């Protein structure tokens, strides 16, 4: 009996795996078609200066409009694009599109760069070409990479980052606190910005330790001369806590959801802006 049950479970597992592999393959084929047909769009989410409530830029977030399945979020297809190598072309499209968008927005644009894309031999030279052909100002572009891009004692990563910095790009460390981060990364790599992962921000009101962790990340980043951005800000309480703790910029549904270029948020809710401006400035340490 038990043996039968085991065999059944095994068969179910195999069927599940096959379905998963089949789904992935299907998505991969669809991705290729989507690249050819141009089924992608960049949505833009505002990034807000905490002490003024002013929108100082936007993060570009990729959306796929699948003809049958509707809108697909990047969490569902970026891993497939990464595993199949298609992220190289997709990422190149994202960067080119971001350069175009710069003409239509104020402030800067942040672009997510995947690990494979970052490591690709032509990444830096392709970017240089892109700047030349589009005339885009790299000082208005921030490249977001995650900790998973970096490994211990990574001379090549340092070189790529330094090249990008020399070209004028800003560099942000995305999802800070979620990877295998080593604090020494922060001083070893030339980040302009660190983005506190939204899981910490989400937990601010629930977990006591989250407040301490967030304060510490803010102090650490600021102390190292970096801009600190909080992701996933959904409530006024979170925004005010972060502003009070000295966080430089806020991003999240409270301030503005990702929207297509024609419908982006140009100003945040004035009531929230007023509250942000009334937060007392953090006193300098003595
Ligand atoms: P990310 O770079 O950390 O982007 C932030 C994600 O949080 C976005 O999800 C955004 O829509 C979501 N978000 C923003 N505010 C809130 C909030 O208040 N509450 C909640 N619950 N979520 C919020 P999205 O657009 O689904 O993107 C997911 C991830 O996919 C991104 O995380 C990024 O790692 C990746 N991604 C997006 N676009 C690109 C791209 O063009 N290239 C690459 N390589 N990766 C991308
Ligand atoms: Mg990001
Ligand atoms: Mg993030
Ligand atoms: Mg991310």
Automatic annotation (TrEMBL):
It comes from Neorhizobium galegae bv. orientalis str. HAMBI 540. Belongs to the ammonia transporter channel (TC 1.A.11.2) family. This is Sensory box/GGDEF family protein. It is found in: Membrane. Residues 24-272 form the EAL domain. The lineage of its organism: Bacteria, Pseudomonadati, Pseudomonadota, Alphaproteobacteria, Hyphomicrobiales.
């Amino acid at each position: 009996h038990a043996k039968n049950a085991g065999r059944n479970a095994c068969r179910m597992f195999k069927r599940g795996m096959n379905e998963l592999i089949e789904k992935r393959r299907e998505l991969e084929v669809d991705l290729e078609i989507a690249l050819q047909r141009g089924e992608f769009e960049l949505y833009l989410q505002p990034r807000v200066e905490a002490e003024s409530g002013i929108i100082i830029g936007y993060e570009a977030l990729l959306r796929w409009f699948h003809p049958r399945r509707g809108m697909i979020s990047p969490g569902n297809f970026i891993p497939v694009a990464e595993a199949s190598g298609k992220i190289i072309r997709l990422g190149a499209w994202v960067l080119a599109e971001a350069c175009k968008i710069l003409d239509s927005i104020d402030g800067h644009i942040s672009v997510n760069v995947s690990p494979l894309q970052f490591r690709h031999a032509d990444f830096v030279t392709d970017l240089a070409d892109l700047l030349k052909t589009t005339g885009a100002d790299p000082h208005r572009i921030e490249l977001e990479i995650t900790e998973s891009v970096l490994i211990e004692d990574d001379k090549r990563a340092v070189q790529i980052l330094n090249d990008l910095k020399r070209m004028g790009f800003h560099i942000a460390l995305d999802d800070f606190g979620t990877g295998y981060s080593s604090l020494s990364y922060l001083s070893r790599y030339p980040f302009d910005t660190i983005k506190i992962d939204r899981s910490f921000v989400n937990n601010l009101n629930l977990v006591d330790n989250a407040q301490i962790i967030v304060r510490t990340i803010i102090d650490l980043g600021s102390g190292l001369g970096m801009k600190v951005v909080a992701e996933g800000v959904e409530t006024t309480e979170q925004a005010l806590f972060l502003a009070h703790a000295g966080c430089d910029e806020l991003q999240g549904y409270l301030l503005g959801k990702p929207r297509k270029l024609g419908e982006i948020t140009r100003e945040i809710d004035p009531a929230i802006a007023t509250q942000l401006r009334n937060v007392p400035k953090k006193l300098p340490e003595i």
